[in-house]
Automatic annotation (TrEMBL):
Keyword Electron transport among UniProt keywords: yes
Chain sites annotated for binding heme c: C138, C141, H142
Protein name: Cytochrome C
PTM comment, free text: Binds 1 heme group per subunit.
One GO term of the biological process aspect: electron transport chain
Organism: Stutzerimonas degradans
GO (cellular component) term, any one: periplasmic space
A Pfam family hit: Cytochrom_C_2
GO terms assigned for molecular function: electron transfer activity; heme binding; iron ion binding
Keyword Iron: yes
Keywords: Electron transport, Heme, Iron, Metal-binding, Signal, Transport
Amino acid sequence: MKLRVLSISLMTLLALAGCDRIDPNSPLGKRKAIYQQMLDIKEDLGGMLRGRLAFDGVAFASGAAKLDELSRQPWQHYPPVKEEQSDARDDVWQQQTRFNELARALEAETAALVAATSAQPLQPQDVAPAFQRVEDACETCHKAFRAY
């Protein structure tokens, strides 16, 4: 019995030692949490526009506002030097000007999405073009700077 408990304990320790845990309070952990929130909201908004979820104009406007708020937050969590664990390419740090341009472009598109939600009651066709521009801004930055 002691051998079994010792074996399980040892296996658990080895498994935990092998995990690439990200400190949630680290810059990487903070920006990953923000990006995850952005993705969750974007999936809900896209789901409403693509028929996966029922379209709710009030909920869409609220999600757009939250997405706009979040779009301004991850940039502060990029340290001057790249961390060892990162989903970002070295180019983020080597091409700061371009990276910052794309960050501002995303912020502009999320603000435009919020503006598109100002006329209630909303219809999907009223906000779909602005939402597509948000998705395009995300994709442009990911293609340039995310290491897949």
